[in-house]
Design a protein that fits this description.
- This protein is an alpha/beta fold and 233 residues long.
- The protein has 2 domains: 2-125, Rossmann fold (3-Layer(aba) Sandwich); 131-222, Arc Repressor Mutant, subunit A (Orthogonal Bundle), CATH 1.10.10.
- It is 51% helix and 12% strand.
- The chain is globular.
- It starts with a strand and ends in an 11-residue tail after the last helix.
């Protein structure tokens, strides 16, 4: 059973999501919150697996709430709710540690699929979209380069050491992930099986301490390993 916390300042929005999730046997809404501060208290008390988080709310917005949840309860994954798919708020949320974002008019089936994906350790937004966000918004956001959320404590020597721990093949996979390629595209590029790619992706995430493949893209940008506009996308 995947426990879900709904966070949105609009009660009708929370009600709608709750009705959709109530129809799924493997998903359980364990609580609701109308602002980020209340969301933090609910996460501490309920320890949900996934938080469905609105971005713009009073008291504490979804970006700051996401940052604190990721720092204090790393086992809890955050899915952001946003209005536009290429939204700088959504990008800021990914930098803060969210595992993906959904449009507020998401279809029920897509909502359920995204929650299940995030709960299983996957991301709910493609690395390709993340790469486009980097190109569009990174230069306009504070902390957009090394030293941001994922780079905290990872000084230049630490970053080199972490990436240096990757095998030659893992580094190839890392570079292609950072460019926003899918597993199938990486497999084709390296002439290996999808299963082999998945194994390498898992090793990359573990060695670099990253939550999912989307955060490989963010990490690579923030640490200067890739530059916006590069990657062939």
């Amino acid at each position: 059973m995947t426990k879900v916390l709904l966070v949105d300042d609009q009660a009708l929005m929370r009600m709608g999501f709750a009705m959709v999730l109530a129809a799924e046997e493997d998903l359980q809404v364990v609580g609701e919150a109308a602002d980020g501060a209340t969301a933090l208290a609910q996460v501490a008390a309920l320890r949900p697996d996934v938080v469905l988080m609105d971005v713009r709310m009073p008291a504490m917005d979804g970006i700051e709430a996401t940052r604190r949840i990721v720092a204090d309860w790393p086992a809890t994954k955050v899915l952001l709710l946003t209005t536009f798919d290429l939204d700088e708020y959504a990008f800021a949320g990914l930098k803060a540690g969210a595992s993906g974002f959904l449009l507020k008019d998401v279809r029920p089936a897509q909502l359920v699929e995204a929650i299940r994906s995030v709960a299983s350790g996957e991301a709910a937004v493609s690395p390709r979209i993340t790469k486009r966000m980097l190109d569009l918004f990174a230069a306009r956001l504070p902390g957009g380069h090394a030293g941001g959320t994922l780079g905290q404590g990872a000084r230049a020597d630490g970053i080199v050491q972490d990436v240096g721990a990757l095998t030659a093949k893992e580094r190839e996979v890392f570079d292609l992930l950072a460019a926003g390629l899918t597993n199938a595209e990486i497999a084709e590029r390296l002439v290996v099986s999808d299963t082999t790619v998945k194994t390498h992706v898992g090793a990359v995430l573990k060695k670099l301490g990253l939550r999912d493949r989307v955060h490989v893209v963010v990490f690579a940008y923030e640490t200067g390993l890739i530059v916006p506009g590069e990657g062939g996308l």
